[in-house]
Write a structure and sequence with these properties.
Layout lengths: L15 H9 L7 H6 L2 H8 L5 H9 L5 H12 L3 H8 L4 H13 L5 H12 L4 H17 L1 H11 L5 H9 L12 H5 L5 H4 L8 H15 L3 H14 L3 H10 L4
Length: about 250
């Protein structure tokens, strides 16, 4: 079972003036706590003033749901055309840019290449939260064709951007966080090696953490495979990055 995304119960932990700016769409969240405290209906009213009272009431009625469900609902309510989607992608609010991620994922497109091209700027967004929404939104499409997804994401791991390299790994974690599992990779994690292997010496700790977490996910169902892979990687060339990744990968074994 996937972990359930938490419902925002942290309003009291956020400075009231900061929360007012977040709900007005004037600023981006600085922490996960701030992001979880955003009132989606208030933000939607401020960011997309043409929303109908019925749409805002529908959004407010779901305030107690987990945040991933509310992200998808907001995108469905807005159903932006190209112009509105572009405005959402450039909005100061990281939550609004997150809605854009889900809006892209909800659109009918001609295959994975089109989805990956559309999500790429958001996967490389400067804000940590937007980057998470990018892979969470697109993950269901990737999971329907895991070999096709791996083949395409194998090109992303060559990017000079550590954010895009991490996206390639994080988006197809076997278990992941706040998302459904990918059974194909739970049972056969070796299918993701074209993405994982080029990252075993990645200089970025941001990417190293993702690779280690990916393998730790895999170890829950395929511990011998993870042990063997780590042993082989270290035998082929022991580097600081590999040592860190392999230690993180086997922390639950």
């Amino acid at each position: 079972m996937a972990k359930t995304a938490p419902v925002a119960r942290t309003v009291r932990d956020v400075d009231p003036l900061q929360l007012a700016d977040l709900n007005a769409g004037r600023v981006a969240s600085r922490t996960l706590t701030e992001g979880l405290a955003v009132d989606f209906a208030q933000l939607m009213s401020a960011a997309v003033p043409e929303c109908s009272p019925a749409d805002l009431a529908r959004m407010q009625a779901q305030a107690g749901q987990g945040i991933t469900r509310r992200m998808a609902l907001a995108a469905g309510i807005l159903a932006p055309d190209d112009a509105r989607l572009a405005a959402m992608q450039a909005h100061p609010s990281d939550t609004v840019r997150g809605w854009a991620c889900y809006a892209i994922a909800a659109r009918p497109m001609a295959g994975l290449d089109a989805y990956l091209t559309a999500i790429r700027p958001l996967a490389d967004d400067p804000h940590f939260g937007v980057r998470e929404w990018a892979w969470l939104a697109l993950r269901p499409h990737l999971a329907t064709d895991i070999d096709g997804a791996v083949a395409r994401l194998a090109g992303w791991v060559m990017s000079p951007s550590e954010r895009l390299r991490r996206f390639a790994c994080e988006a197809i974690r076997p278990r992941g966080v706040w998302c459904s599992h990918i059974p194909d990779l739970v049972q056969a994690p070796e299918r993701a090696l074209p993405v994982l292997a080029p990252l075993r010496d990645d200089p970025s700790r941001y990417v190293q953490d993702s690779v280690g977490n990916w393998l730790n996910d895999a170890a829950k169902a395929q511990p011998d495979w993870v042990r063997g892979l780590c042993a082989r990687w270290l035998a082929e060339g022991e580097s600081e990055a590999r040592r860190y990744i392999c230690k993180r990968a086997q922390r639950s074994l």
